[in-house]
Amino acid sequence: MQVDFLIVGQGLAGSLLAKALLRRGRTVHVVDDRWKSSSSQVAAGLMTPLTGRRFTLTKDYPELFASAKARLTELGVFRSIQVYRMFVDEEQRGKGLKRTECKSCQPFIAQVTSEQGELDAGLTDAFGGALMNGAWVDLPKLMSDVRAELVAAGSLTEASFDPPDAVTNAEGVTWREFRAGAIVYCDGYKSAQRGPFKYLPWQPAKGEALTLRSDVADRPFILNREGWALPLGNGVWRTGTNWQWDQLDETTNEAQKEKLIGRFRGYFAEDVEVEVASHVAGVRPCTSDNHPFMGAHPNQPRTYLFSGLGPRGTVWAPAMADEMAAYLCEGNALRKECDLARFSAA
Q1: Which domains does the chain have, with CATH numbers?
Q2: pTM exceeds 0.85 for this model
């Protein structure tokens, strides 16, 4: 079977790249292990404008957010929602107030509170917080919808992928009965462990998340303080996460589960009962400079990478998938901060 592109992995990156290539009239075939190694299955899909200890706005966030909103609304998976970032101390509160003076930040900050209970009497926001205009993306629906489309077209193979099984040369790529014009790795942190792009400065990090049923009242916003809690309605919440730099696998940890439950309960001034409905773990494909890895392998012909979206993947992915498709199909240049050419091959 002949196709234009063989895509390895059907997480967020692989799904959106496949859609972007199909929109351009190209043929694709996707190889995926049923999301067993996809961090997209664990991620909440949150779009939180100001992040980190220093409460900063990601570079190009307004442009990326607008692009993500447009594309993901078309796919029926974009959900507008506010995010309440509860400050951990006075220093962070000061940074929050300073951001209200930033023109780029102002559209994303709805309110900054100054004392506990100002926004919601049931929260433990002793230092106040910032109510931000954000969103979340229904990643399971997105990937399920794309998978169904690929299956219906005969364009998906469920299998574990071993890079040595793909034979590449100047004419194309051969894998099993498939021959492709090029192969694109979208397999997340797996590319940090094996394959042609192992040489890159990856910094994969494991995270875990819980789905909870709770007696606490639903909120109309996401709670955010050293983690997050996403209200899904009818007493169901999704909460996470943590950063673990070792034991990079999809195995859940009981101690981490208790930590996440304790953090969730700590958001509320009342006693909270919870029941754990699910506990999942995954590894984020983070990078050393917090920018995606996109482009061609420097030595191996017809071999490309679209990965490294990291913790802000839902914001990066829609725009970057279109840019990667334009690079592959039309030869358009990639933005320098994402192009693999910024690194030398080992």
Answers
A1: 2-41+140-202+288-342 (3.50.50.60), 78-134 (no CATH), 205-284 (3.30.9.10)
A2: yes
